[in-house]
Amino acid sequence: MRLLLFVCCALLLGSACTSKYLLISVSDLQQVERRLIAQEVQIEMLRARQDAMREVVLEGQRGLASEVTSEIRARVEPPRCPVVPERTCPLDEQASVDIMSGKQLVGAVETVRLSPPGILIDARIDTGATTSSLDAREVTLFERDGRKWVRFTLMGADGEAHVLERKLVRRVRVLQSVTETAERRPVVELHVTVGDIHDKAEFTLTDRSHLDFPVLIGRNVLKDVMLVDVGRDHLAPPADVPSPVLIQEVVE
Predict the structure, then answer these.
(1) For 97, which DSSP code?
(2) 3-state secondary structure of 31
(3) Could you tell me which residues come within 8 angstroms of residue 205 by beta carbon, excluding any fewer than 6 positions away?
(4) What is the signed CA dihedral for 99, 103, 107, 112, rounded to 10 degrees?
(5) How far apart are CA 52 and CA 120, in angstroms?
(6) How many Å apart are CA 152 and CA 164, to the nearest integer?
(7) What is the pLDDT of residues 153-192, one digit of tens each?
(8) pTM of the model
């Protein structure tokens, strides 16, 4: 800007110029200098006023935004999160159902119900046995109406003898680790209840008088419905007579 003013002054004073030199008096130069200084001061004042006005506008906008926000908060109800019920662990330390799989928990020993004859008796739970087994005495094969049947005696927990007659399903060869010869055992079907599970299952008939438990529950009863905790006993609920809704059996 100074250069522009200087050129303008030089043109106005062109009459005082010679063909080789431009002659300007000291007073004219001082006057131009004062004007330039005055213009710079005026420019600085305009800049300061512009900055002040910008700050005032921004402050007003911030105040307006704050008022609008406060008004919205006053009129709009804040969202409320639903109340989540507190989860509590069951008081019973021996849960009868596995939470992850939904299967019934059973221990190494359980009290089961056999029907017939409808008695409660302790049984060994054995995941290594393919088929369940039953302590049977005086096993006799006979025919009825052209079909093979089995008559045997089952000893109850109270020492009472129960004579049962069941249809022969098949015969299996069982080789035990304590003997070298295989034993042919008849197989019959009985209704068995373990806790809340009620089913019709196959049992091999053999003399288990030398064993601690007269009944052995194998994988044919446990598979897909029970989990076994071999470190504890009697985890399943009492094997009461199931309700009609839970009975999954074929009435003979």
Answers:
(1) B
(2) helix
(3) 133, 134, 136, 139, 150, 152, 185, 186, 187, 188
(4) 140
(5) 97
(6) 6
(7) 998 888 889 999 999 999 998 876 566 677 889 999 999 9
(8) 0.57
